[in-house]
Amino acid sequence: MDLVMPIVDGFDLRRRARAERPDIPVIFVTARDKETDLTQAEADGHDGFFRKPFDGDALLSAVAEAVARDGRTRQG
After folding, report:
1. Distance (Å, whole) CA 13 – CA 26
2. Alpha helix locations (H) across the chain?
3. In 10 A of CB 24, how many CB atoms?
4. Helix (H, G, I), strand (E, B), or coil: what is residue 30?
5. Can you tell me the distance from the alpha carbon of 45 to that of 25, in angstroms, rounded to the nearest whole number?
6. Which residue, 40, 47, 39, is CA-closest to 66?
7. Under 8 Å between Cβ of 9 and 55
8. Which H helix or E strand runs over 29?
9. How confident is the model over 27-38, as pLDDT tens digits?
10. 30 — phi, psi (to 5°)?
């Protein structure tokens, strides 16, 4: 998810999503260059944090790892 979106920011959306499903994978993508964003993302957990422009292969790898981890968690 992006950090900057209309109505709700990425951090708030992550909180809302994880309230419903604590194990949901979250990958952030942002054009902002604020170090505090990474610090905040790390404090609450994430499965990837990418600043634009980003390496497409690295993003795909993070998505694959998050999906695999989520599948293992669900099978539990």
Report:
1. 10
2. 10-20, 35-44, 56-75
3. 14
4. strand
5. 9
6. 47
7. no
8. strand 27-30
9. 999 999 898 999
10. -150, 155
For residue 5, what are its two tokens?
A: 């979106």
First vs last Cα of the chain: how many Å apart? 26
pLDDT in tens, 58-68: 999 999 999 99
SS3 for 64?
helix
- Mean pLDDT of all residues in 15-33: 93
Chain position carrying tokens 């669900």: 74
| Residue 61, token pair as written in the block | 């790898």
Looking at domain 10-75, its CATH superfamily turns out to be: Response regulator (3.40.50.2300)
Q: Which two tokens stand for residue 49?
A: 């944090």
For residue 49, list its beta bridge partners: 28
